[in-house]
Amino acid sequence: MITSKKWLAFVPAMALVVASCSSSSGSGAGTTSAGGGGSVAASASSVASSAASSGSSASSAATTGASTGGTEAVSQTQAGDLTFYMITHSDDGPFWSVVKRGAEQAAKDLGVKLVWKPGNNDPQVMVKDIEAAVAAGASGIAASLPNADALVGPLKAAVAAHVPVITLNSGSKDYQAIGALTHVGQSEDVAGSGAGDRLNAAGAKKVLCAQQEQGNSGLTERCQGLEKSFKGKVVTQFVGLDADTTAQQNTINAALAADPAIDAILGVGPVVTMSALRAAKDLGRKVTIGGFDLTPELLGAIQAGDIAFTVDQQQYLQGYMPILLLYLNVTNQNTLGGGLPILTGPGFVTKDNAAEVIKLSKQGTR
Amino acid sequence: MTLQGGGTEPLGSTPPDVDRREVWLEEPLTTIDKPSVQPAEPELMVANRGATASAVAPDGDERLAYRSVFQRLFMRPEVGAIIGAVGIWTFFWAVSGTFGTVGQTFGWLDTAATLGIMAVAVSMLMIGGEFDLSSGAMTGAMGMLIIYLVKATGALGGRGFPLELAIPLSLALALGIGYLNGWMVERTGQPSFIITLGTFFALIGLKLGLAKRFVGQIQIGRTDEASDFKYFRPFFAAEWERNKHEFAQRDFWYIALVAAGVLISILAVCELWFKRRAEPKATGLVQFLVSAAVGIAAGIGLNVTDGVGANLAIGVLIALCIVVGLHGWVSWRYEPIGERGSVALDSTMIRRTVLGLALVVLGGVVAVVMDSKSTNNFVFPFTTQGVRVMLASALGVAGLTLLAMVSQAALRVNAASKFIATSALALGIAVIAATIYIASKAPKFRAALFPFLLFLAVLIFTWGMLASRFAERRAVAARADRLGNRMLALGILSVLIGLAIRMLFITKAELLAGVPPAKTSVRLLWFALFTAAMMWVLARTRFGSWTFAVGGNKEAARQVGVPAARTKTKLFMLVAFAAWFVGILVAFRINSIQANAGDGQEFLYIIAAVVGGTLLTGGYGSAFGGAIGACIMSIPLIGISSARWNTDWRFLIIGTILLLAVVSNRYLRTKAGAVRR
Amino acid sequence: MSEHALLELDNISKYYGNIIALSGVSTSVAAGEVTCVLGDNGAGKSSLIKILAGVHQPTEGSIRMNGEEVSFASPREALDHGIATVYQDLAMVPLMSVWRNFFLGSEPTKGLGPFKFIDTAKAKQITKDELTKMGIDIRDTEQPVGTLSGGERQSVAIARAGYFGAKVLILDEPTSALGVKQSGVVLKRIVEARNNGLAVIFITHNPRHAYPVGDRFLILNRGHSMGSFAKDEIAIDDLTRLMAGGAELEALEHELQASGASSDRPLAQR
Questions:
Q1: Which of B10, B665, C109, C160 has the smallest set of CB atoms within 10 Å of its CB?
Q2: Distance from CA of B41 to the nearest CA of C (A)
Q3: Half-sphere exposure (CA, 13 Å, Cβ side) for B614?
Q4: Between chains, do B559 and C90 touch, taking CB under 8 Å as contact?
């Protein structure tokens, strides 16, 4: 009886595998972003190229885009002839749908054509899309760079083919190697520092940086950024997975009870921030609470004054700005940022603008 | 080997357990032809018609010795988990300033509640020999489902259902998923591990997909927008704020119930352990009653008087009352021992006793001498205070272990030796109590641990004395067992009610002292009720019996008419029910659920079940063990945070607990002789 | 065939595809009688049990109970007809207590509706009484069955079958995994069951276990019946010979002796 069930010994091992699958897949769209702020100014877009595409079709058919390297052609370019490709690892979830709306709005405002190519986290799909876009004579490519190994090559090839490239969301470390014009995204580190400044302003002396995952580099960078700017003491703690909010709440409660000096909490995700709020309420403690990302609950709590602020990545800009910058580059040879990445965050939602943001969030632009 | 081959092989090399077909060649004809060789089996000769074999004396197996109350206790699957939970709790109580407070106790109980409801259900499924990896994801799915149903999610017709409809609808769906799991497992004959892994991924995908499709968010809310929310909230999320419930006589009831409970439990153990005497000895009862009266008076006196001297005198008086009173009770009801023998400890025992006491004293010396007078919270383990605590504890534990070993060994010598050895153990504990009183400045150690250890020492001494003077019952006595078990249950219940009163109510003094607010919710009640119900189901219903049977030996169960497939399917549905319930509890608590809620929790449930003594292979375990296992999971979660340790070590601790639990459960089982396999 | 037979098998055959497991087997068992089914491995014993227990249906032939023809579509139906089968290793759930095993599947309950619960006190008492009747003194019926010896486990299963009104008790190799003394215990139970008026079918490959307790012997060899004999028609040595296929065994003994197995080292002591 026992021997026939030996396979059961594998259960704990498999359960671990399953759990790791679920935690990585469930980490949520709100935390997708690359870390680290590039700082070295490298030679910016020195390639003086302009795409004078003649008769390219928006439906990505096989019409060849004859791009000629001539400065004089710039002013003659018709906006309506321009086709920009946005190729990302988007899963069309709530986060990326806001990016998409931003890009669409930019295309509409500028009167250019936009081709939206969501890769759904598959770098192979993105590689194909990039190559197809170059072949189809794209006027410019805006791409996210979640996987450098797979994507640097094709993007370099695009730059070599005189297609201007801008990276967005993730890719702050690699955009220079590609020769991209710039990078539009958020740095977790800077976002954390921004939250630290806010907490300084609120007069906090000791802050608990509550993490909902262990070993997530993005979340760790948020707490590290907080340590850089916050003037008091920072206690960084893993307080339990989002999967069990009860444990999260009680763990934060225990941390607060054990250390009466803690007078602020920064939750590095929306769910953990709400758990922190409940814990503080249960204990009857006055603490300043800051959070990350936007959810209806969190915005509601900010509006009610229970939570001081939340850090917003403003991903709408990550859709809008690359299209705008590509347009200006193609039509006017402009570059922005001086080779440094352009940060879309941290934007802050506080009680003052919460009502407005809630409205915008319903429209799908925040 | 075959019959033909036997001729060519050297006969001496044949293994003793040869092929079955040769058995008839192997066994001598003793039972038939030479009855004189086998006098143990005389019946076989007259085994034919007319022989009255039933008149033969019963052939009791001498290996089935009577199991004492402690052996029976240690045979319970959850006993290792209870010891572990007490140990872990004590550890965090000792190292953290806030862990023992009522607020934090509510914290880990609250965490254990949702985990535990699932762990209890999962324990039952595992006893039935199956797994459900979809259980974690299902909690989140059910929470989301409730919100979908009550929400105006356009696709569902623009108007949400009222909760009266949404709750039964979601329950039906949950049971449907459970049924599907069971049906697929039974139909395909595949391991439930694989089938439910499929359900797990399907549920995850469904949760994410539906959330994005209908709400455009990975998080959906809000439960409180449902119509009639306010009527349902009390059932699922009613809260109890301790600081708002004052109860002036709280401490009286608390102490009275706990003391009565402990006393009844001790008397219950006496009833289970000792042999009833034919004629009760009335003087014993008088002795007990007088001691009890004096003891109660002394206890009241302890509240009135103040000062170390008076407390000490009253403490000694109470200890005396315990010794004399229990002796009176036992001499009233139970048979004294005939031959006590004289003390006969061999040299090893004497050496170990001396060494044990020496180690305990040395631990005390270390604790006093190494005291750096530092008032800092000691940070484990890198300060003088930390090293001191660890060294003193290690010495104390080593000493007590030696003493306990000796008193175990002395059991086999005679009554008088047992008394001496047990007294040495009691003395060792008393020395440690004294050390704590002298060396520790922490009020919680001086006010709680010191008297507790002294009480323990008195109790152990008393038990050693009684066990060496009165005869142990060595046969099953159904009435005594029933009475003893009921008294034990009553005693434990009394202690629990006492503790609950202490936790739920506040006194004026505490309010004035500014005790931080503590809050708990109705889910603790559900946790307790569900656990109790499942314990009852396992112990007393046919379904419970069948659960053990289908997990232990499905074919045998099926053969005697147990509907194995239906039993297993019902177990899957039970897990689904628990997941539904937990999903509602969470949805009512936090008002919104995000798509990954519950994902990955299933393996915590399995760990809790295994820690609680349930066998991974099925057929053995307990519902109560699952509940305790959940507490063992949640205590370190809250404890590490309370102790302000780096939480990076959390999973290391949980992993270690799991390993320790599995090893010690196995050890306890073999030790108690519960399983021979 | 005897006229008062409780269970009669008439010309039973069983084919698995083109394999003939049983061919034209007939025998009978009367209440208060033990019919031993003897045969070497592969003789068709287990096919016969499975047919009687309702696991398989015979390809040809008929089963009669009390003279009426019956057929069993499932083990449950066989049980309902009063045919209880005790399998060698599947008899018990080792981790469950003796009384739970005894009543498994037929627990006595009291109470109403969803609050129906097992009458444990009654179940324990009956278990203890029934086992005492069979001469087993289990001090504590809470003891897990796994702690009992193999013979005791078989005994509990036999007592259980008897208590639940079995008319025919089929025992599948109950002694094969047991030592000499334990086998004796089980044989004693068989006799007791018979004396209590049960019809017992005792399947074994050991004539020395079968002969003392059997009233009738059915000998199988390679799916064929070698005959069904009353006890007074056959001696134990003939049983052995028939089982092994007659002449083969004698040839073997000569061969063994010729190859040096001395007479003072009988085979039985190997």
A1: B10
A2: 7
A3: 35
A4: yes
Q: How far apart are CA A337 and CA A335, in angstroms?
A: 7
Nearest beta carbon to residue A295 from set B115, B217, B602: B217
Both tokens of residue B588?
A: 């009512």
Contacting residues for B408 by C-beta, under 8 A, at least 6 apart: none
Residue A46 clears pLDDT 60, i.e. is over it? no
Report chain B residues whose CB lies below 8 A from the CB of A282: 103, 517, 519
Secondary structure of residue A45 in the 3-state scheme: coil
Residues in chain B with CB shorter than 8 Å from the CB of C208 are 24, 27, 29, 31-32
For residue A318, the number of C-alpha atoms closer than 13 Å in the C-beta half-sphere is: 37
Specify whether the CB–CB gap between B464 and B422 falls below 8 A: yes
CA distance B557 to chain C (A): 7
What is d(CA B278, CA C104) in angstroms, rounded to the nearest whole number? 38
Give the model confidence (pLDDT) of B618-634 as tens digits.
Answer: 888 999 999 999 999 99
Distance, CA of B129 to CA of B407 (rounded, Å): 40
Q: How far is B617 from chain A (nearest CA, A)?
A: 7
Distance from the Cα of A221 to chain B's closest Cα (Å) equals 16
Most confident of A74-83, B360-369, B494-503, C165-174: B494-503
Give the residue from B421, B449, B468 where a domain finishes: B468
Buried b (16+ CB within 10 A) or exposed e, B264-301: bbbbbbbbbbbbebeeebeebeebbeebbebbeebbee
C70 Cβ contact partners less than 8 Å away, ≥ 6 residues apart: C63, C64, C81
Least confidently predicted of B166-175, B604-613, C192-201:
C192-201
Residue B542 banded pLDDT, cuts 50, 70, 90:
very high
* Residue of B224, B603, B610 to mutate when probing chain A, most A C-beta within 10 A: B603
Share of chain A above pLDDT 70, in %: 78
Among A268, A291, A312, the domain boundary falls at A312
For the whole model, what pTM was predicted?
0.81
With contact defined as 3+ CB pairs under 8 Å, the chains touching B are: A, C
Cα–Cα distances in angstroms (integers) from residue B559 to residues A13, A24, B542, B555, in the given order: 34, 46, 16, 6
- Subunits next to C (3 or more Cβ pairs <8 Å) are B
CATH number of this structure's domain C5-95+164-269, picked from the four choices 2.40.128.20, 3.40.50.1360, 3.40.50.620, 3.40.50.300: 3.40.50.300
Number of folded domains in chain A? 2
Which chain B residue has its CA at the smallest distance from C94's CA? B552
**B586: chain A residues, CB-CB within 8 Å:** 245-246
Do A222 and A268 lie in one domain? The reply is yes
Is A243 in Cβ contact with B136 (below 8 Å)? yes
CB pairs under 8 A between B and C: 202
The range of the structural domain enclosing residue B29 comes to: 1-41
Give the domain-ending residue among B418, B452, B468: B468
Q: Quickly list DSSP for B293-304.
A: HHHHHHHHHHHH
State how far the alpha carbon of A44 is from the alpha carbons of A166, A176, A330, A334, A338, in Å: 12, 8, 15, 11, 7
Chain B residues in contact with C176 by the CB 8 A cut-off are 20, 23
List pLDDT tens digits, range A107-162.
999 999 999 999 888 889 999 999 999 999 999 999 998 888 889 999 999 999 99
Q: Does A297 touch chain B (CB under 8 A)?
A: yes
Shared domain for A329 and A308, answered yes or no, is no
Are C206 and B27 an interchain contact pair (Cβ–Cβ within 8 Å)? yes
Which sequence spans correspond to the domains of chain C? 5-95+164-269
Q: Is the dihedral of CA B24, B30, B34, B35 positive or negative?
A: negative
Peptide bond into B381 cis (omega under 30): yes
Say whether both A181 and A328 belong to one domain: yes
